[in-house]
Write a structure and sequence with these properties.
By secondary structure, the chain is of the alpha+beta class. The chain is built from ten helices and 14 strands. The strands form three sheets. It has a six-stranded antiparallel sheet with strand order 3-4-1-6-7-8. A six-stranded mixed sheet has the order 10-9-13-14-11-12, covered by helices on one side. A two-stranded antiparallel ribbon has the order 2-5.
């Protein structure tokens, strides 16, 4: 249950405010793979949602909504002068995201975050006023009882001085003030989370245009957004948001990128604590992760291309699968992957060989391919086959 009057809204002219509640991963490792994790959960639990509002128990909220594609987000309106209570249901457990699906008491931690907005001049709820969050773990009843018992026994064995380092128990969920979630409405502090990314607009390759969208170029993982010494404090704040260090934005509000780059690991550990301090240090100073395979592609021209058009584009592959190759080709040419039916490689005597995962795994490093397209079905069809030569 979340029951909290966020701030004093007596100066707000609009009667209602809008709160967005989301359940996300607390660990940075899982935040990077959030899209894949949630898609896997969606396939294993068709028709279910990660987060719901228990309407019979909730009071003082109106227009509750849940987007069918955002399984971990709900939103509602409420009157801050009267207050309100919202009961939420988290329909997945922490151990569903552990490698063997039965992590016992060591399930992954979630974060419940509430972002609240008032109406702007356009009467849209996009002016941010408050954010709060807390870390939670969700277990089945027997697992929860066992974990509470284990934690209680651990605390009882510690000295009184060590016990003071832990937070006391509360009857209801207590949320601490925090920075807004990066992809909240009206915020420009960072790119959308992978969970909410949209498909690229179909154009370019399938219409015969040989100039791919430059924004679709594949960047090396972990190398495309390093801190630059020339960045201002505002740029540094945006970088912290993008890399899920929002809780330290206020702490580093007067730091430029050059200030952070001069700090040592011990400095970060002392300021942010052992876990977050090491994470932040590794994000700033860490080396980039190399892809498992790199290939180059160029769109085939009907006529002989000009030297300026004869340009190859790099594709970096990590999973070495045919589906990943198709998605990366579609991304480079700003095309929806759903429009690409199959990907072939031209073999001996011009035969078209369907590309499989095994074929991708046996590609030679830095192979160059020419990309051509074949129409699928009749003229009314919008599907295509891709042929690599």
């Amino acid at each position: 249950m979340l029951n909290r009057k966020l701030v004093d809204y007596t100066d707000i002219s609009s009667k209602f405010v809008k709160s967005i509640v989301r359940v996300v991963f607390h660990d940075r490792r899982l935040q990077y793979t959030e899209h894949q994790q949630l898609e896997g959960w969606r396939w294993s639990r068709p028709g279910d949602r990660i987060l719901d509002i228990d309407l019979p128990l909730s009071m003082g909220i109106v227009e509750p909504q849940s987007h069918p594609l955002q399984l971990n987000t709900v939103e509602f309106l409420w009157d801050p002068l009267k207050g309100g209570s919202v009961f939420i249901q988290v329909n997945c457990i922490s151990t569903e995201f552990t490698p063997r699906k039965h992590g016992g008491e060591k399930g992954v931690p979630f974060r419940i975050q509430v972002d609240t907005f008032i109406q702007n001049r356009g009467r849209e709820y996009q002016e941010h006023v408050h954010s709060s969050s807390c870390q939670v773990k969700v277990f089945k009843p027997k697992g929860a009882d066992r974990k509470l018992k284990t934690d209680r026994e651990k605390i009882e064995k510690k000295s009184l001085q060590d016990r003071e380092k832990y937070q006391p128990c509360y009857e209801t969920t207590v949320l601490a003030e925090c920075s807004p979630w990066p992809d909240a409405p009206g915020l420009c502090c960072g790119p959308p989370s992978p969970m909410y990314r949209s498909s690229p607009t179909p154009c370019g390759l399938l219409e015969g245009n040989c100039s791919p969208d430059q924004q679709g170029e594949q960047m090396l993982p972990s190398c495309s957004d390093h801190l630059l010494p020339t960045w201002s404090t505002q740029d540094t704040q945006k970088w912290l948001h993008r890399h899920r260090f929002s809780q330290f934005c206020r702490l580093f509000s007067s730091f430029s990128a050059a200030d952070l780059l001069k700090m040592s690991k011990d400095d970060f550990v002392q300021i942010c604590g052992p876990a977050d301090g090491i994470r932040l240090f590794n994000s700033i100073k860490g080396r980039c992760i190399q892809p498992r395979l790199t290939v180059y592609v160029r769109h085939q021209q009907q006529a002989k291309p000009m030297p300026s058009e004869d340009v190859y584009h790099a594709i970096y592959l990590d999973e070495l699968t045919a589906s990943e190759l198709k998605e990366k080709i579609a991304n480079i040419y700003n095309v929806s992957p759903q429009r690409i039916s199959r990907v072939y490689r031209q073999g001996p005597a011009g035969v078209h060989v369907l590309i499989s995962d095994g074929m991708v795994q046996n590609f030679i490093e830095e192979t160059c391919f020419t990309v051509s397209t074949l129409k699928v079905g009749d003229e009314n069809s919008d599907g295509y086959h891709i042929v690599l030569k």
